Amino acid sequence: MSSSSQFAGIGVGVVGLGGMGQLHASTVQELGGNVVAGADISADARNAFSATFDAACYEHHDQLIADDAVQAVIVTTPNRFHEPITIAALEEGCHVLVEKPLAHSLDSARRIADAAHRSDTTCMVGFHNRHAGSAQLFDAQRAADRFGDVRHVEANYVRRRGIPGTGSWFTDPSLAGGGALIDIGVHALDLALYAMGFPEVIEVSGTTRTGFGNRETYADPDGFGSVSDGGLSEVEDSVTAFVRCEGGRTISLEAAWASNREPSMDLYVRGEGAGAHFEIGDSDCRILDTGVAGIDHYEDVILSGDSSVAGYRVQDEQFLSCVANGAAPETNTIAEALCVQRVIDAIYESAAQNRAIELESYQHQTSTRQTPHARL
Predict the structure, then answer these.
(1) CA dist list (Å): 127 to 92, 131, 252, 333, 369
(2) At 323, is the secondary structure helix, strand, or coil?
(3) Per-residue pLDDT tens for 304-338?
(4) C-alpha span between 89 and 94 (Å, rounded)
(5) How many domains does the chain have?
(6) 3-state class percentages of the chain: helix first, strand second, coil last, to nearest 5
(7) Could you tell me the residue range of the domain that residue 243 belongs to?
(8) Confidence check: pLDDT of 212 > 90
(9) Has residue 135 been placed in a domain?
(10) Is 13 helix (H, G, I), strand (E, B) or coil?
(11) Domain shared by 316 and 300, yes or no
(12) At residue 64, does pLDDT exceed 80?
């Protein structure tokens, strides 16, 4: 059965009609799903979305959720609004794909997780980089036990300059919940925990810095962001963290919107059998190994994937498949996203208290993975 025929009966509504919302809507259409509704407080955004996708548009998310044509909701709003929209959609019987991070705070993320646990519909979280070619190649090698016991992951998402517009919601802690860590560091952290199979996290230590966003002479050669009404950044623009997990496994994390170093989106996975190096969102994966045939030697193998395969597309296809087939998601689960959120919260707490934070025993909550029914 083709994707188009499989997903033809799924009506999708998008809440938050900015760039991410439009990207998801375009992907859903390409996959054969029906974009039937959109919601945004901006009239201009609603008008543009309606013209592009021929969809009904509403000012408030509750109007969209009440639309009988909507069976699945994609949430791409500022982080603070993930909770009310996601919970309302779940309680109405809609399936939900909510963009990363799960929420702006740990308490909010927990309330979403509780609602997902009560619901019998699909709820996934948009960590799309797990589905990029580089990560898929890594997954295949891990499934073949190429790496053995993964002991450490170095995770980096560092921009030389790339602060989102100061004065925007990205730099407003009440809306975003933080800065570089919760915006881009969350991708690197999620991939690191994913590469390790989400082990129990025991202790977290972190430091955050704000050294660039409040400069009147901040240079932005690539024009990444802009100053809005003279607003200044109220959140961190870089973070360094160390995460200690069960069994002596560890993660080192570097994330920055701005830093005086070369940019990096590298993930280094150090296993006892072999290692891997790949860039977040890339299509290639380098395997780092050794051998004894002939003479002792290094074996560096580059696995090249299809660069046209987008992580967003694979992720959205998996979401639509779960909706169409009534299957529980095997990846991008609420339980995994809640684990990531707990570590983010602990990093911020560690930075605030200037000490390491011990986490209470955490077990992966498979109980949130229930078999959903489709609202079709």
Answers:
(1) 24, 8, 19, 10, 17
(2) helix
(3) 998 888 999 999 999 999 999 999 999 999 999 99
(4) 5
(5) 2
(6) 35, 25, 40
(7) 130-309+343-358
(8) no
(9) yes
(10) strand
(11) no
(12) yes
